[in-house]
């Protein structure tokens, strides 16, 4: 095709053109030689032209033809202007002229429309886009009333375009689309653009939607699919057409082809009114893919890589590679069965149980297995935890419960796991409510397994001992006996943490000492003797301080202790002393039984014995140690542990026998020392605490000392003092002097409370109205004050349940499980969440669902996890089902 000379006119692009081969190149050549005007061009002779470098025969002929045209316009204007090749070109101008494209109308012309009617190369496309950008900038720049930077313009345009579809994009898609839009907008030199006015024009003129669809070909399909999915219902074509008006990247003209694609892939179905999104089943989706997914289909049907390789006569590795590539095209997270992936990944269920619970087949199970990402290091949850998770439907719960019950034995409304631990736990409750010897228990358990035809072998007695030791609801006693122990673990832990072991620092003691020092605490957790307590501490050894070492039952050591030194220290302090008195004092101080002291301990003091009298001289005490201690001991009362710590901090670690304190003017006791100014410890406590109208126990370790504890218990019981806040007390005299309320009036109120409550369980919440109608209400004290009064009332037993104290007028002990059993029996059956509300509203007890379920396991109550109902027993449940 020939070259064209195009002549510029004032408005528009061209006035005329002449077909002269090589015209443009010829003019460029002479221009480089210095010919830059029409006049100079016309003056050139043939000889001149032949001497110009770069002019061949065809170019010379072109110049001669141009000279004949007598053109008035400046032929060299384009070469003088550095702004482009607007006037001398090949076929761009012809294309613009042919399609009637100019600056006035180019913004409304779409590239894809031009491409339908023209064969366009990159040069034409770039020229078209360049002119459009130039025209667009002229139109939109300087339209804002206030300055706005290009970066802000680009950001606002991008956000205006993407915000309507933001909820239908994945994060990666959003990032990529943002980048592509920014790349297009960065090509324009925006200055002070009114974005609100021109946003649509700019994006439409730049054909941003076409650009993005070219970059991400299936983005429109994905947006439409997600839009339909979020509707959660059938969508009519009218609603759909209206809904996508606001969605960029989806054109109405292209809507039906997109819907057809979604229908063909199985993600959308046609309905009577329109369309509806659905997650296709994996079988359906594989069917849509047809032969392309044949390998996956075979794998999901259970074939191995080797078997499929034999079918195709290729290696196992080749099939594995093909499978890996095929998995990449499966949108597995959109497949219907993927909703079970969380259960597959997090819960330990056999394939058989999993398929039964979720009503799927092996094909679907293999799909989950193929695409799930399981962390093999993570511990999976149990089937029981899944049942209580709240994630299952009613039908799924029923199926799982049916499976779980297969492993249980039902006896008198009790569900018992058919394994060794489950049977042992049940037999402990059944046979050991009163203490029983291990031999008798062993025989009873074996008889039980025979009676119920259980295929469970406990082995010999030693093997059963190992199983029993893991049971939480049991305590070992002296003489290889055991008993049922159903106390709440939380309560036991709280009690153990309440024991001040530091009071016995550097001592070997019997658990009997703890039993004597903490009688109320031991009563609350139902510990009867030192052997039970020692066994309990053994079970919870992990929460004990490192200083506490459990020795042979019932002994324990706190810190570092030597029995021989401990015996000798006490002997030196008491010498001379009779065997009887010494054994009595050692038993009182360290909790070891008198019989054990006489039979086993006194052997270590035989060299100090003379005719049933023991005598040991006081060793010489280093003067430096006495001086150091004297400098530390400036007060009347010290806990021994504090002395050791003070001394260690200033002078280094040391250990002191009790008799050394006699030299310093102090009386040594088990846990503390007291100035000789006081003949007895209770005199000191009376003077510094109980004689005051208001006092606070500044060191809770005092409550574990025998003399202090006995005094405070007696005064609370006699209504001489009352606890009005945690460890804060007020005297009866103070109350009487300020309010006129007497002890007699308090007793009358207590009598009124016990009479109204009778033998019912009650908390302060239930007697608050009685208090409010009494003179005590004027005191303004919290519940702890009234609970303090009630705890001292003879015949009232109490248990702490969480942060609430529950009382009952009874001779028998009661526990949280007996309390719960009685509450549920009133209703016969109750929804577990209704029970939670009832306990909080009526008693002030705050228990979680999990806490209640754990308590139920100690009772004959029956909890149905699917219905989330509690029944007073299994018979009640079956009666309800029949009705």
From TrEMBL:
One of its GO terms (molecular function) is nucleotide binding. SUPFAM superfamilies: Rad51 N-terminal domain-like, Sigma3 and sigma4 domains of RNA polymerase sigma factors. It comes from the Bacteria. This is Uncharacterized protein. It comes from Vagococcus zengguangii. The lineage of its organism: Bacteria, Bacillati, Bacillota, Bacilli, Lactobacillales.
